[in-house]
Structures are given as C-alpha cells and as structure tokens.
Design a protein that fits this description.
Helix content: 25-40%
CATH architecture of the largest domain: Alpha-Beta Complex
Shape: globular
CATH class of the largest domain: Alpha Beta
CATH superfamily of the largest domain: Medium-chain alcohol dehydrogenases, catalytic domain
Strand content: 15-25%
Distance between the termini: 20 Å
Bound molecules: NADP nicotinamide-adenine-dinucleotide phosphate
Length: 336
C-alpha cells in the first residue's frame, strides 16, 4: 500500500512523506478496508509531533477517520456485519493510507445516497454533537441554543442537530466566511465573537433578553457564556479549541442555576456502550429526513495522500470550515 508512516516525530505536517509500505495485516477481529476518503483532525497534527494522549510505538501510520470499501472480513467472525464490498466509514489508527484495518465497533455503513467524501468526516463530529445536545442537555423544540465555533467540525453538526430538534440557533465564529457557512447550515442568527461585546448581543436576541437555554462550547468560552445563558441554562463543555483549559468563577454558575455539563463521546464505548446505537439511530433518522448533511470543506479540494500535509496545514491554520476531507483515488474508482 501507500501511506504516511511515522518512524520518528516530526515538527509539523510539511515533513510528512508518502511512501510504499507493506500492506497491513488485520488482527483476527479486524476488517481490511480500501480507503476512498480520509478526514483530518487537529489531534492528527498533535500525534505526528508526539503531543497527543495516544502515541503508538514506532513505526505507525498516521490518520484516523476514513471511508471506503471492505476488502476482507475478520478471520474470527462467523457472521460479519459488513460483507466484502460494503461501503463503510469509521475511525482507526492508520487512515492516511490506501488500506486500513478496523474492528466492527469502529465502523458504520455509509448512509444511503452519501458519498465517501461526506461519510469520511461523520464518525466523530455527528455523535459528539447529537450526544451533547440530546443526551446531555435534553434539547427540545423552542429552546434557544448558542453554538460557538459554529463553522467548525463539531459546530456545524451541532447547528444541524439543534435546528432538527426545533431550536433557534445563535452561531458564533471568527470570520465573515465562517458566519456565512453557519447560516447556510441553518443558523438563525450569526455573530462574530472577535467582537468582545458578543454576550450582550446574544442576550438581546433572545425573548425578553432572557438568554439562551443551551450553550454548545468546543472553544473554552464557558466563563463569558454565563453572561448570556438563561436561568436553568445548560452549558456543554465540548472542547478547548482556543488552547487553554478554562477556569470559571463558580459563583456565576450558582447565581443563574446553571448546569455545566461535559461530553466525552469517545468514552461512551467504555462507560455507556448501550447509548451508542441510540445516538447513531437518531442521526440516521435525521439523515433520512434530510435534516443532517455532510459538512465537507469545499472552498478547496484535496486529492491524494500527497495533499494531506496541505490539508493539515489549512486545518491547523484555522482557514477551513466543516470537515477537511481528502479524496484517496483508487484504481477501481470509475466502477463505483
Ligand atoms: N468532547 C468530545 O467528545 C469531542 C469530540 C470531538 C471534538 N472535540 C473537541 O472539540 C473541539 C473542536 O473540534 P472540531 O473537530 O470542531 O475542530 P475544528 O473543525 O478544527 O474547529 C475548531 C474551531 O474552533 C475555533 N477556534 C477558536 N479558537 C481557536 C484557536 N485558537 N485555534 C483554532 N481554532 C480555534 C475555530 O473557529 P473560528 O475560526 O470561527 O473561531 C475552529 O473552526 C476540539 O477541541 C476537539 O478536541 C471534543
């Protein structure tokens, strides 16, 4: 196969090289998958530098999210869920390659009518945002929801889920283009949070200035968001894209009866496995109803493993929106 192997840590994506590598050998519980698209994540940039929480022993192939077709089923499976030729998407170490291995819990079927490009970026963002808003914050029709970094990967998923549940969405982002994208994906109101006065503006948008019912925060804006959250509001702690783990003055949480609620989607596989099919069932329903669509960054195309460094640099440079997905051409593509 061809792939981006890491034999020593690099300073950044520019140093990544695509080389010929031996085909991977699936473990007894793993499928072998031909990769048709791979999606980038900020943690890929950290991992190639040795700065991520999960660092495999050298040498290892970088990348995590992908979509593709099943070439071989697990040797230990008598009744595999995905027969040879199935279109799947998922996440497993080694997705920046033409072949990847993944076990059944790391895979899902590509939704009906979806392209490999759209499906490649679905595995992490959609369930994080659905799980946060539905399981953790109990979203309901009529709620006002503030989505921070609304044009990012999890942000655009959150905008779509919130709209599908009948909420009014206020979206924040840091550029005019990103605000435009948030609006295209359904946000009712958009605000540039580079303007320090955004909490007051959010409050003024809500009925009688009462504030929003739910804040979806992948950035690290809990403290400022307490200013524009309603009595009994919920603030979802999703991530720290701004790079700092926030410290919050707890009196603000007390004064308005606020619930500060965490979400760690990846840990559901360990602590609450039974919730996973419920979340994907809910996402599947929204997709079938046309209420949830793929969020592939389309301002620039990335094609081939050789374009992964550029894709990672664009992602890390905060220039992109949605999911930055790289198409991986395969010899049989014209037949698909
Ligand atoms: N809790 C979970 O289970 C879970 C699951 C998935 C992801 N996450 C976390 O959620 C966060 C967002 O993930 P994502 O996939 O949506 O990432 P992403 O697509 O890269 O989007 C992140 C957004 O954060 C905003 N941002 C604000 N300050 C930033 C800064 N200093 N540097 C870079 N971006 C900044 C950017 O929007 P603007 O330019 O508009 O400000 C950017 O679009 C990450 O921290 C990730 O680790 C958590």
């Amino acid at each position: 196969m061809r792939g981006i192997q890491i034999s020593e840590y690099v300073k950044g994506p520019k140093e990544l090289k695509v080389t010929d590598l031996p085909d991977p050998t699936p473990k007894p519980d793993q499928y072998l998958i031909e990769v048709h698209a791979t999606a980038t994540n900020f943690f890929d940039i950290l991992q190639i530098q040795g700065k991520y929480q999960n660092q495999p022993p050298f040498p290892w192939v970088s990348g995590a999210e992908f979509s593709g077709t099943v070439l071989a089923t697990p040797s230990s499976a008598t009744n595999p869920k995905f027969p040879i030729g199935s279109r799947v998407f998922g996440a497993s170490q080694g997705a920046y390659a033409t072949l990847v291995c993944a076990a059944e819990p790391e895979l899902l079927p590509v939704p009906q009518g979806w392209s490999f490009l759209d499906a490649a970026g679905l595995f992490v963002t959609a369930p994080t945002s659905y799980g946060a808003l539905v399981l953790r914050a109990g979203i309901k029709a009529g709620d006002w929801v503030l989505v921070h970094a609304a044009a990012g990967g999890v942000g655009l998923a959150a905008v779509q889920v919130a709209k599908a549940f009948g909420a009014t969405v206020v979206a924040t982002a840091g550029s005019a283009r990103k605000l435009e994208v948030a609006k295209q994906f359904g946000a009712d109101h958009v605000l540039d949070y580079r303007d320090a006065g955004w909490p007051d503006k959010v409050k003024k948008l809500t009925p009688k200035g009462r504030g929003v019912d739910i804040v979806y925060d992948p950035v690290g804006l809990v403290d400022k968001s307490t200013k524009c959250v309603a009595w009994n509001g919920r603030i979802l702690v999703v991530g720290f894209a701004a790079g700092q783990i926030e410290k919050v003055a707890m009196n603000k949480v007390l004064l308005k009866n606020i619930s500060v609620v965490g979400i760690h989607w990846g840990a559901y596989a360990r602590f609450e496995r039974e919730a996973i099919p419920l979340v994907w069932g809910g996402i599947g329903k929204l997709i079938a109803e046309g209420k949830f669509k793929g969020t592939v960054f389309s301002d620039k195309e990335f094609v081939g493993l050789e374009s992964i460094p550029d894709a990672l640099l664009a992602l890390g440079g905060r220039e992109t929106w949605g999911k930055v997905v790289v198409k991986i051409p395969q010899p049989g593509d014209s037949k698909l």
